[in-house]
Specification:
single chain; about 325 residues; Inosine-uridine Nucleoside N-ribohydrolase, Chain A; two-stranded antiparallel ribbon; 13 helices; about 35% helix; about 20% strand; globular; binds beta-D-ribofuranose; binds calcium ion
Length: about 325
Amino acid sequence: MKDIILDCDPGQDDALAILLALGSADINLKAITVVGGNVSVDKCYLNAMKVLTFAGRTDIPVYRGANRPLKQNLTTLENVFGESGMAGTENWKIPKFFVPQENAVDFLIKTYSNANNYPHLCATAPQTNIAQALLKQPQISENIPGITIMGGCVFPEPLRGRMGNISVNGDDVYAEYNFAMDPEAADITLCSSIQKINLIGLDITRRVLYNGEVDTRIRKIGTKEAIMIADMLSAIGPDDMEDYAPVKKTPTDPIRALHDAVAMCYLVDDSIFKIEQIPIKIDLKNFRGQSLIAPEGRVVNVIRDINKQAFFDILCDSIANLKR
Ligand code: BDR
Ligand code: CA
């Protein structure tokens, strides 16, 4: 069983990453840290607690971190995820209590300063918390055995052939959201001494789409949990309705990418992915947040391909294993 700390900004796809971990016999989710991203950090905190309550796992601590990137303003994505950040979960139980916890950055520093078996990090949001921890205590990077990141877009994404999903110049220059939102933080992570970096970019995650067929398959699992998860995933915001219009089978086909769940799946079973070692650097100027191939960059494991069928099998097994 792998010990994992997840840094996230739920977000339906982050929520699915949490649920995938909780339903998997291969992952021991030790803690969740949240950061402002898809919605404000307070909403992300509540959403993480909501997912843990849903899965009956309020024993897992949640730590609240930064609400804004290191050097720019936060752009939240209510048009993708809904006002709460998790549209479609309105009937999920509201967590009844919040145990006050230390700050996410301090928690990360403490965790990577004095443990014996250091957990692997999974990052599915702007990496502000992680960068702040590395800036405050740079020596912890050597204790981080690895980080699996949903972020970047090393090759053009398959839907529109862009290098990301968010315009970084108000026009035709695109970068992936997690890197575009905090390019300095992504750069700090990449330039750190973290022992191993796995990068799962938009060019891969946009190949793994939720749609009417997947929705039917999940509902057929037949548990109350599976139906509630399908309700969450099929609550598609107006931006995704428009973005995925070219690949819809019917006008109401509930299409969204399952980005962060794909990153978590890499930690469940990396044999269903193909990787290539590629030197990457983060652009901090005109193409802010783009993940560029550059000889002087950090050599990372870039995920180049995924067995989609196997991914959905793993996802459905995990969902079927969830008990409330
Ligand atoms: C990433 O950005 C967020 O909106 C998603 O949760 C995912 O982590 C995709 O670009
Ligand atoms: Ca996310």
